[in-house]
Specification:
Blueprint (H helix, E strand, L loop, with lengths): L19 H14 L13 E3 L13 E7 L4 E7 L18 H32 L7 H19 L2 H39 L3 H41 L5 H22 L1 H9 L1 H19 L7 H6 L3
């Protein structure tokens, strides 16, 4: 290799098969081109600086070099682009969708989930007002069952059976709460690193909103699970001493509502998580899937013998 003054990139003048030394020289030149100064270039090759690349495709602060091989009359262009911290955010910033479209898709997704639950609460309110069991939702069935179960325990004084059942339910809800908090910790740590590496104000704001939405849904889920555990712990102490009142029955009904809300917020958290992973369009797709899933699990149970169970007035 010989030293040659800076020139423009020329085409290969004479085709020639590259030998082992040529490949080695090219590898050395490539490694040295990743440095920001030509002082680190090896003496056995020439790295000629070209004018800065002005193409919109090139990364900021990128530099172009060329390597000349005398034996093969080959001048190879090399381009060194420093790593940009904004590159990992390419899948999060939804560059293929304009901000206005992002806002529209996110608003539509929130409206779908919010509208479904408003309609669900309205149906439950009408069912409670009319006193009919034909239009009850799954949550109402479960709440009625727990209330009847508490009445059965008080009348039969099955304290040992009650404590065992409450212990199993408390263990399950405690596990769900700890799982949600563990997932939130992992997600927050990863998103915080990406947030600190964000290079634009738009990316930082977007990631902040995404992280806040994920944290809100998961914290509400864990809170409801823990409230259910607290109420069941209180009910376990009240059974023997408040067996002539219906306070324990009402507490057991509240525990079902807490469990339902904990599971519901945990399911809803999948929507903002999909927003982080796949953008606003993924948010909309997951919202539609959650809508269908909620319609399946919230409908009144069929074939479970609940009507016969209620008729026995346990």
């Amino acid at each position: 290799f010989t030293t040659r003054p800076p020139q423009t990139i020329t085409e290969i003048q004479q085709p020639h098969a590259m030998g082992v030394w040529d490949v080695l020289a090219l590898a050395i030149a490539l490694s040295s081109s990743l440095k920001t100064s030509d002082a680190f270039a090896p003496s056995s090759c020439v790295i000629d600086r070209l004018p800065p690349v002005t193409s919109s495709v090139a990364a900021p602060c990128s530099s172009s070099y060329e390597v000349f091989n005398k034996s093969t009359n080959m001048r190879l262009p090399l381009q060194a682009s420093p790593y940009s911290v904004s590159e990992p955010l390419a899948i999060f910033s939804s560059q293929t969708v304009t901000p206005n479209v992002n806002i529209a898709l996110i608003s539509l997704s929130i409206t779908i989930l919010l509208g479904y639950h408003i309609n669900l609460l309205w149906k439950e309110f009408k069912s409670n007002s009319s006193g009919s069991s034909c239009s009850k939702t799954w949550r109402q069935y479960q709440a009625d069952t727990r209330e009847d179960w508490a009445r059965h325990v008080r009348e039969t004084e099955g304290w040992l059976y009650a404590i065992q059942s409450l212990r199993n339910a408390m263990t399950a809800q405690t596990f769900l709460a700890s799982t949600v908090l563990s997932l939130l910790t992992l997600i927050t740590g990863k998103m915080w690193d990406i947030l600190r590496a964000a290079s634009t104000k738009y990316d930082r704001r977007l990631l902040t909103v995404q992280l806040a939405s994920i944290a809100t849904t998961m914290l509400l889920s864990a809170y409801q699970f823990l409230q259910g555990v607290r109420l069941m712990t209180h009910a376990g102490f009240m059974f023997p001493v408040k067996k002539d009142t219906t306070k324990v029955d009402n507490i057991m009904r509240q525990t079902q509502n807490c469990q339902w809300l904990g599971l519901r917020w945990m399911y809803v958290s999948l929507a903002p998580i999909s927003w982080v992973v796949g953008g606003s369009r993924a948010y909309l797709v997951v919202s539609l899937l959650l809508l269908q899933f909620f319609r399946t699990i919230d409908k009144q149970p069929e074939g479970l013998g609940y009507e016969e169970f209620q008729a026995e007035n346990i």
